Amino acid sequence: MGDTKKLSNELVESVRTGEKTATSALVWELEANGEKLPSVKDIVVVTNWKGDPSCIIEITETEVRPFGEIDERFAFDYGE
After folding, report:
1. What share of the chain is helix, strand, coil (3-state, %, to 5)?
2. Which CATH number among 3.40.640.10, 3.40.309.10, 3.90.180.10, 3.10.400.10 corresponds to the domain 5-78?
3. pLDDT greater than 90 at residue 60
4. Would you list the domain boundaries of the chain?
5. For 20, which of 5, 12, 41, 79 could close a Cys bridge (C-beta 3.0–4.6 Å)?
6. What is the pTM of this model?
7. Cβ count near 2 (within 10 Å)
């Protein structure tokens, strides 16, 4: 999460404390990197900038939608 050490560590801490409960990714970027879309019940180890584990989360919901259709609830859960 995040593209700098400071941002990454802040986001990971927000996930760990429950402030951040949603995230997003670009479908085309996942596909280009050979990664699969997240699925409900996937278990993910969240790591800090150095790669140290911080917490474990379970994916409870996934949805693919255009950026212009992001709603207020998702933005709040995104926590940024």
Report:
1. 35, 15, 50
2. 3.10.400.10
3. yes
4. 5-78
5. 79
6. 0.81
7. 14
